[in-house]
Recover the amino acids of this structure.
């Protein structure tokens, strides 16, 4: 009885190890890769972005500054990205997309015009961390405000196929558009 139980447990562990060892890598096509990339950005999951980014060490969205991370999360959550066209040419692909994002220039104009009032309302008389925090808080508030306005931008996202996997090689236009610039 003990021998059967031991053999059963051993067989179970060997089966588990075999299944784990034979796990097939998931390969996404170019559209799935871009969709994953965009969905990760819009949901504020900036670490997942690195999974399909060619140069993850240059991902400026991964920051230890929680307030800045919050601003990007709020800003990108308000974005809508529509994939218009994908042109594949061998190991390269170009994705044309339309981005609807918060018009950050309106937010910046408001903050610039009302800096003194914002600081006074928060009883801050000087520059420094408290002033920066108050201005960032107001910026996030303005981004969340539906009356801020949106702008539409058409962008290209570039991909490359490496090791049978599509990765994003140049996302600069997309990020810039999602930032409302």
């Amino acid at each position: 009885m003990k021998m059967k139980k031991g053999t059963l447990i051993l067989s179970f562990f060997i089966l588990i190890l075999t299944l784990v060892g034979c796990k097939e890598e998931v390969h996404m096509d170019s559209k799935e890769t871009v969709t994953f990339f965009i969905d990760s950005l819009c949901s504020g999951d900036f670490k997942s972005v690195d999974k399909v980014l060619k140069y993850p060490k240059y991902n400026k969205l991964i920051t230890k500054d929680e307030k800045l991370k919050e601003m990007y999360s709020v800003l990108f959550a308000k974005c809508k990205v529509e994939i218009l066209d994908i042109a594949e040419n061998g190991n390269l692909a170009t994705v044309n997309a339309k981005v609807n994002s918060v018009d950050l220039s309106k937010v910046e104009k408001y903050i610039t015009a009302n800096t003194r009032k914002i600081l006074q309302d928060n009883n801050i008389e000087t520059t420094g961390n408290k002033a920066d925090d108050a201005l960032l808080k107001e910026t996030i508030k303005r981004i969340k405000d539906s009356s801020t306005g949106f702008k539409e931008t058409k962008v290209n996202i570039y991909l490359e196929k490496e090791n049978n996997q599509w990765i994003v090689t140049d996302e600069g236009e997309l990020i810039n558009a999602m930032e409302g610039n």
About this structure: The CA atoms of residues 157 and 171 lie 5 Å apart. The beta strands are 80-89, 92-102, 150-162, 165-170.
